[in-house]
Design a protein that fits this description.
By secondary structure, the chain is mainly alpha-helical. The chain is 83% helix and 0% strand. It is built from four helices and no strands. It starts with a helix and ends with a helix.
Length: 89
Amino acid sequence: MQTSLNELIIIEQFLLSNPGEAEKILMQARVILQPELDESIYWQEKSYELVNVYGREKLRKEIQQIHQQLFSYKRHRNFRNWIMRIFTK
């Protein structure tokens, strides 16, 4: 199944906006008229979920790297001590 660019635009506008009742009813009507649209919507939602998970994992790794640098490198000793004092009070 190949999704047209117009369908992708419609799906993205629907999924990325906060659709009101009218937009939801319109999309339901489109799905009734084009049943394959339902599958396209499903896969687009799954794609967004995967992109979100990937982004969170990448951010988590970056934060861990920064944490490792701040709390292990000698040149950041003053900062590390300052932070430790904040949390020991």
